[in-house]
Amino acid sequence: MKKFGLLFSIIILFSQLMWGQTTYTWTGATSSDWTVSTNWNPTRSSPRSSDLLVFDKGGTLTVTSV
Description:
The chain has one helix spanning 2-18; strands at 23-26, 31-33, 40-41, 52-54, 62-64.
């Protein structure tokens, strides 16, 4: 039974690591292209639907190519 508990814990741990969310912060100008990977910190080269996107510059942004 202890082996099953350990195996179950390892599976849960790895599944969380594989499906974890990444937080990206917008660093582009106030009028920049959404798809340019360097407009994000860290560089967003492989977008996922689970990504957390943060726009914290304040003011109004015009983000293009969404």
